[in-house]
Amino acid sequence: MTGIYVGNDRVIHFVQAIKANAGAPLMACKKCGFKRKDHLEVVRTCLDCFHKKGFLSGTRLYLYRYGFSRLECQIHRTHCTKMQSCPADQVVARAEEIYESGNQFGKYNFILNNCEYFATYCKCGTAISTQVDQGVEYVRELIQRNVHRYQQLQNGDFCSSSR
Ligand SMILES: [Zn+2]
């Protein structure tokens, strides 16, 4: 789960819509008024709702960092990207604009249009998901390894099962 902190204890983030009969809490948040059941897909909540009440329950809050080197991204793997962030006021303006427009970010899709796409679009002007990209890269590596193994086997080479 990623979102854009827009100040005054508020986060704008992109969440999957919950069906009316889902077992989500009925009570609206006393701090921000957010009600899990009747939200649109781009929502503005307090940090508590973003972090503790259902979205990120039991997880830690991280600051996602931009403009890291390729090596630093290899070391940290998550929570950082090589992409450069736009100035903060521009980032907040993008998030507010999408939120105020009544959810112009489209339908939530875990792979093709998730919270990270929303956040990177607000931050950088380009909607990407490093988590999905890393998953795609992992699958690509597996395929390449297997192709390499297959070529080794065709050539009569011994293929280690440890790689
Ligand atoms: Zn709240």
From TrEMBL:
Looking up Pfam families in the UniProt record yields: LRAT
Q: Which InterPro entries match?
A: LRAT_dom (IPR007053)
Instruction: Classify the source by domain of life.
Output: Eukaryota
Coiled-coil residues: none
Give start and end of each LRAT domain.
1-131
Q: What is this protein called?
A: LRAT domain-containing protein
Q: Which lineage?
A: Eukaryota, Viridiplantae, Streptophyta, Embryophyta, Tracheophyta
